[in-house]
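Revision sheet: structure tokens.
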Amino acid sequence: MSRFRKACSSASNLARTRDVWRRQRLAQRRSLPPMAWTYSTRSARACSRFNNMNWLKLLLFLMLATDVSHTLAQDRPPNFLVLIGDDMGVETLSSYGIGTPTAITPNLDQLAEDGVLFENFWTEPICSPSRADILTGRYPFRHGVPGPLFSFWGRMGVPQPERPASAHKEALFSPLGPVEELPDAMPEEYTPGLLNSELLIPELLKLLPTPYATGAVGKWHLSTPFNENWLDHPNANGFDNFAGPLTGIAHSYFAWLHVENGEVRQESGYVDTTNSENAIRFIHEQGDNPWFAWVAFYNPHTNVHLPPTELLNSEARALDPNAVSTENTQPYFLAQIEALDTLVGRIMAAIPEEVIDNTYVIFLGDNGTDRWSGPPAPIDPQRVKMTTYEGGVRVPLIIRGPEIEAGARIPYMAHAVDLFATILELAAGDDESVVPADRPIDSVSLVPYLLEGADEELREWNYSSVLMGELSNSRTLRNSEYKLIIDNGTEELYHIAEDPAELNPLDLENLAEPERSHYQALKAQLEVLN
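Predicted:
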């Protein structure tokens, strides 16, 4: 059986709107605020400018230019821009129509209009395992990162910088916190970090006839001092360039340790603004070379805070930056998502149009919203990040790019591991040798959904887990109809197709058919995956 599905070779012109990103390009050139340029003003000026042109000549020129551009794009390997929101459940985006209230996200809304939105996409319910899933195409019990990695700030060789006096107040909510000192022996509840023996997407993209330039920007959260060369861990695993924080929790969004290709320095700029600038710099440096950019934002992870107002365009600008507390986190959390959206728009606007037309843009959350941020209703704050309920594992996934039908919605199951085979198939076409044959791969390519209009489940089931010793030990498995959760030995079964909010657990002592058969099959499969 094919290690990933054969890519669709049919070509069609993709009609898509780019108004938000074009407005931002104009705004950047004119030094205006990100969203200050309006549709009506631009259209009126365009009409006036072209009133006296020879429209026939213009039309012929545009047709020729479009044909040449399309031919050149077909001859080049596609680029990949992976954008990750941190602790961002499916209820946080208005394009999913689930949560109330949601953040103001015009750029992510535009991305959904231009691409494919996956309605039942799962990750692991915590940061590090999900990131390892994507990059390896393997579940946590295979890649060896079953839980979060602690933040060893005190072992980085450089002291934490002082927060600037102008920095906004931050509220840190986490049961884990930083680990300043390295213990003599690794405690059982610790995760050591992703081993160098794993094969990651960037390493495999370098094996193609036209090797990819690879860059990682922002939160890494896949290495600890237990890893060999942990400060340049991204570089040791296929990334030509890395710039960002290594740790899972920012000491401060306004003062942090910036690691660039193994070198550590103090930084006092807003962390995600710096991350977006580093992403743009990497992309611009590649010229005509194909590239893979991994951009992992810290937002909207705790510390809860008000981002710089230059990143906000809604009433969030009026929030008191020093009034955030445990009692009022949600408005600040939504402002963090708005800031992330603005930075996504800046990155998109900075990419030349002929380049973005040959780029697959992938946006996802790494796990569900955490309880301290104030997840939008109807999500239960006790069934979020670090749990295997839908609030912990169901996150946004939006993909746009060449040949993808704009505005499509996929109701079928997909998983973080599936991005591995998807990216490799889009990059390699029929060359299946790029997929490792010496180890189990759990990834299922999503290319049939993206390019062929597939209208059926590609997966028999979806799996997620969080294994953190006494803190949390939960696994879940679902098929197209039912979902089984086993949490520290306690079992819950839901008819997930009819009860997506998981409000009505089925009585396991009195199951009728077909519930009984589904329960038995799910439990048997979970035992195989244990």
